[in-house]
UniProtKB/TrEMBL annotation:
This is YegS/Rv2252/BmrU family lipid kinase. It comes from the Bacteria. The keyword ATP-binding applies. Belongs to the diacylglycerol/lipid kinase family. GO terms for molecular function: kinase activity. Keywords: ATP-binding, Kinase, Lipid biosynthesis, Lipid metabolism, Nucleotide-binding, Phospholipid biosynthesis, Phospholipid metabolism, Transferase. Pfam families: DAGK_cat, YegS_C. PROSITE patterns: DAGK. Residues 1-135 form the DAGKc domain. Gene3D superfamilies: 2.60.200.40, Probable inorganic polyphosphate/atp-NAD kinase, domain 1 (3.40.50.10330). Transmembrane segments: none annotated. Its cofactor is Mg(2+).
Length: 304
């Protein structure tokens, strides 16, 4: 394709400096597939948003994010509801959205995939979730898993999925189910919940398929609701989370819904690893809200 104006958003600290180390090579490879490439280097969320907004004023066709899930989350905010296509070159510790798109973990292999998508015009539409005007691409969670995310975000060691494992162990010590009311367009549940996960895509926490049947093109969330379980049962369930076999547990219920309202005792709610607020709140699925650059076919992804 010709006439493509793209921007590369780099978050140098992502992956403990991994993004900074490969940024030059990533930019050089992208330049082979576009006519103009703007380089946006941001060291904070505020700076990232400002640079993206400035670049958008120049008529972007694509935004490529080199960074982790937090950086990608900012790219989603910019691209959602616009014609600007989002490409991902993962260099963080979780990379759950990249996993959903079938993007390789290796940044150089990933940028080659983005280049191939740019050259082939491989743009696909997918759904996003939205809470109070903020978009999310992967999983929204409340309960035990949100408390784990909150603790994991405070940890500086270890890196990657092991950080979530350590946070899980710490939260188990203070674990208890909490009363939650969930209301969808067809169902109302009142229960003592261990965790509630609302999946636009399947994975969170660095590769945990909490909503393994989620389809980001069907206009619906997949909900995984874990009712009250004892600490021993929860410990026994945790290894199954990484294989998707937790759905077989008798305390687990799954639902599908276009929107869900949460109400509880002001429990924190996280999505894409970012704090979205506290209960009560509502999440809704917005069909086809994001265009992504990928040569891989997510389940039923619609080509633009």
């Amino acid at each position: 394709m010709t006439g493509i104006h793209a921007a590369l958003a780099v978050h140098p600290d992502s992956g403990h400096g991994a993004a900074a180390r490969v940024a030059g090579t990533v930019a050089a490879r992208l330049r082979r597939a576009v006519d103009r490439l703007d380089l946006l280097v941001a060291n904070s969320v505020e700076e990232s948003r400002a640079l993206m907004a400035r670049a958008g004023g120049g008529g972007l066709d694509a935004l490529v994010v080199l960074g982790g899930d937090g950086a990608v989350h900012q790219g989603v905010q910019f691209c959602a509801g616009t014609p600007v296509a989002l490409g991902i070159v993962p260099s963080g510790t979780g990379n759950d959205f990249a996993r959903a798109l079938g993007v390789p973990d290796d940044p150089l292999a990933a940028v080659d995939e983005v280049v191939a998508a740019l050259r082939a015009g491989a743009r696909h539409r997918m759904d996003l979730g939205q809470v109070d005007g903020t978009w999310f691409a992967t999983v929204l969670c409340a309960g035990f898993d949100a408390l784990v995310s909150e603790r994991a975000n405070r940890l500086r060691w270890p890196a990657g999925p092991r950080r979530y494992d350590l946070a899980i162990i710490a939260e188990l010590a203070r674990f208890r189910a909490r009363p939650v009311t969930l209301t969808t367009e067809t169902t109302r549940l009142r229960l003592d919940a261990t965790l509630v996960a609302v999946g636009n895509t399947a994975w969170y926490g660095g590769g945990i398929p909490i909503c393994p049947r989620a389809d980001a093109t069907d206009g619906l969330f997949d909900l995984t609701v874990v009712g009250e379980v004892g600490r021993a049962d929860l410990v026994a369930m945790l290894p199954k989370l990484r294989t998707g076999r937790h759905l077989d547990h008798p305390a687990v219920r799954t639902l599908r819904a276009a929107s869900v309202c949460f109400d509880g005792d002001r429990l924190p709610v996280y999505a894409d690893g970012e704090r979205m607020g506290v209960m009560p709140l509502e999440a809704r699925c917005v069909a086809g809200a994001l265009t992504v650059l990928t040569t891989h076919r997510m389940r039923n992804v619609g080509r633009v």
